[in-house]
Design a protein that fits this description.
alpha/beta; Glucose Oxidase, domain 1; Rossmann fold; 10-stranded mixed beta sheet; 7-stranded mixed barrel; 21 strands
């Protein structure tokens, strides 16, 4: 293994070993508390522009495979792991985690105290950093970091969104057949606005009985409204995605036009935040975000769901003036879901498809399908 050098904007300088791609990357560092699913996390487009610190100590032990990809490639800048295992043991594995990272120019950083990093981020908050196998001098690393824009200044949606529309044709994972179920053609079609959508979100929408068409983030609301009025589509879904939602000015304007119609709208994560902003309620940044598969959320029926989370931004409490809270995080009481008073519009901050994570929130996809149908 070659050495890799890390500099954080709070002045911390570290040395570790590299098991991924060589080179230099700059991004925001966060931590994820999921106990499994490192491949899904690495290929989640919502992590574009970020380094992910895994709190699970052993990573790489089940390898990677094509079925567990959440998109076509790895999107994060790099990953931090305590101990990396190159020799995987899993009948579904087809190659090593290291190979996936190298193929996608993603840094892999191991033999480092991830507990130390996690406690630092918990105390000081998510921060910008640089990691390099090429540069070891602390002053040069600091200078390179200072010259690059912050994650809040970059529109990563342009990088992760599809460039062409397409029909998604697979449903949820079938454990009996060890494959994804096939889409059943439905007479009800929805359009998914791709801000960086995860494949398993699309799978669950299909599984709920909908035909799913995915369109780029450069969509035009007037086109979707015309298709809805003509009876061609029955609803719109706003997907998850990376970065600060307040930077998405053009996208916000298009969502505002959709809100003004009677189109049913469902949104997750970034889409949830976009709906808030489009209604006039700006989001705010959490100290270190919520990333993991063990967050308890109380729903409007006063039952608790264990949920998967991946976000740095949240909608404000003031949104209750135009919407009802349907879900609330029991860790910090932040809003996890709302149903707007006007129109068939609702959204959640957590990930009900939970890949990886628990599946207690999947019913939300069926609720959207019932509205559309």
């Amino acid at each position: 293994m070659e050495k890799i050098y890390i500099y954080l904007e709070n002045g911390t300088y570290l040395e570790a070993d590299s098991f991924g791609a060589s080179g230099t990357q700059i991004g925001e560092i966060v931590f994820n508390t999921s106990m499994s699913g490192y491949q899904e996390i690495t290929t989640d487009p919502s992590y574009a522009g970020q380094f992910v610190t895994f709190t699970a100590p052993e990573i790489g032990n089940v390898g990677v495979n094509d079925d567990d990809m959440e998109s076509t490639k790895a999107h994060c800048k790099g990953v931090f792991v305590r101990a990396y295992n190159d020799k995987y043991s899993n009948f579904r594995g087809t190659k090593t985690y290291s190979e996936l990272l190298k193929e996608n120019n993603t840094l892999g950083i191991c033999n480092i105290d991830t507990r130390y990093l996690t406690k630092m981020l918990r105390n000081e908050g998510a921060m910008m950093m640089i990691a390099s196998t090429e540069v070891s001098d602390i002053n040069e690393l600091k200078e390179l970091l200072s010259l690059e824009p912050r994650i809040e200044e970059i529109n990563y949606i342009e990088q992760v969104s599809t460039k062409e529309s397409y029909i998604h044709k697979s449903g949820a994972w079938d454990h009996a057949n060890m494959n994804y179920s096939k889409a059943v053609m439905s007479d009800k079609k929805i359009v998914v606005i791709d801000f960086g959508v995860k494949r398993n979100i699309l799978n669950e929408l299909v599984q709920s009985g909908l035909e799913v068409e995915v369109v780029p983030s450069t969509f035009k609301a007037v086109d979707l409204i015309a298709r809805f009025d003509a009876g061609e589509i029955g609803g719109v879904f706003l997907s998850n995605g990376p970065g600060d939602p307040l930077t998405l000015i053009e996208e916000k304007e298009q969502v505002e036009e959709l809100i003004a119609t009677q189109i049913p709208i469902f949104a997750i994560c970034l889409g949830h935040q976009m709906l808030s902003i489009a209604h006039g309620f700006d989001t705010y940044k959490l100290k270190f975000g919520q990333h993991g598969g063990n967050h308890p959320v109380k729903n409007e029926k006063n039952t608790v769901e264990i949920t998967a989370q991946n976000h740095n931004y949240n909608v404000p409490d003031s949104i209750t003036s135009i919407a009802k809270i349907t879900h609330q995080n029991l860790f910090d009481n932040t809003i996890e879901g709302v149903r707007y008073n006007q129109g068939n519009i609702f959204s959640v901050q957590h990930h009900p498809e939970a890949s990886p994570g628990p599946h207690e929130s999947k019913y939300i996809f069926d609720e959207f399908a019932k509205i559309v149908k």
